[in-house]
Amino acid sequence: MKTYNILKKIVIALAIIAAVMLGILFVILQTEKNHSQPQETPIVETEDSIDEEIYTSEYVTRNYELNEVNGIPIIHSFIPFDSPRRPGEIRAIKYITIHETDNRSTSATAQGHSAYLISDYNDITAWHYTVDDHEIYHNLPDNEIAWNAGDDRVRDGGNINGIGIEMCVNLGVDFEKTVDNTAHLTAQLLRTYQLSLEDVKMHADFMDKICPHRLISEGRVEEFLDLVQTYYESEGQ
After folding, report:
1. Dihedral angle at the C-alpha atoms of 128, 159, 41, 139, nearest 10 degrees?
2. Which segments within the chain are labelled E, that is strand?
3. pLDDT tens across 142-152, in order?
4. pLDDT tens digits, residue range 60-97?
5. What are the start-end ranges of the H helices in 89-220?
């Protein structure tokens, strides 16, 4: 009788262990299945972040991917979903915000900045496009928030509603060509998202910072805006 009870307990214990093992295996298989599925940009609706009115506003809230601008290739290389640099929050697009990287290193090209944004998980700062004299990298969908304007979650602010563009100023870059490429990109984005020249902002418009540094310190902001307007009108015909 004792032997029977011992065997009975062993069988019950083995059954419990088998059930637990099957449960763990099921969770693992489901996780792998979920990871194998293509990820869609999440829409995060929180009371203290994005007003619900943006979903019914006159501003565009969807992302368009441009392949090239004035013969310059646009390389789409998005920041991973699990990076703190990618909040993944959908918003209305109201501005184009112009920056300069202020990084003079010879390796600080558009490609170099793209690789940095993708691989570095130590900060939340990010932007949508990086432009140099021969390439444009696209690192966040245009309709996602990026922390680059320095104005937190200010309503209608640069972070919440701007497409951030960084211009490279590294040693060896043709800065004039970079400015020209940026003006072409800005004009195309204005047309794509039904915006006007008044919607082109400098980083300094949203916070106390001299950025884009060269355009501001050299008194070239109006020159840049005039170039954007020229391309907006000529290429839109």
Report:
1. 10
2. 68-69, 72-76, 95-100, 129-131, 136-138, 162-167, 200-202
3. 999 999 999 99
4. 999 999 999 999 999 999 999 999 999 999 999 999 99
5. 110-119, 158-161, 175-192, 213-217
Q: Give the pair of three-digit tokens for residue 212.
A: 């884009």
More reliable by pLDDT, 30 or 85? 85
Prediction pTM value: 0.77
C-alpha triplet 102, 227, 207: angle, nearest 5°: 40
Parse the chain into domains and list their residue ranges.
1-37, 52-235
Q: What would the two tokens of residue 73 be?
A: 């290739």
Locate 38 and state its tokens: 């293509």
What is the CATH number assigned to the segment(s) 52-235?
Answer: 3.40.80.10
Tracing tokens 């792998």 back to the chain, one arrives at: 32
The two beta strands, 200-202 and 136-138, are unpaired
Distance, CA of 55 to CA of 185 (rounded, Å): 25
DSSP output for 133-152: SS-EEE-S-TTB--B-SS-T
Place of tokens 């004792």: 2
Q: CA 26, 30, 31, 37: dihedral to nearest 10 degrees?
A: 160
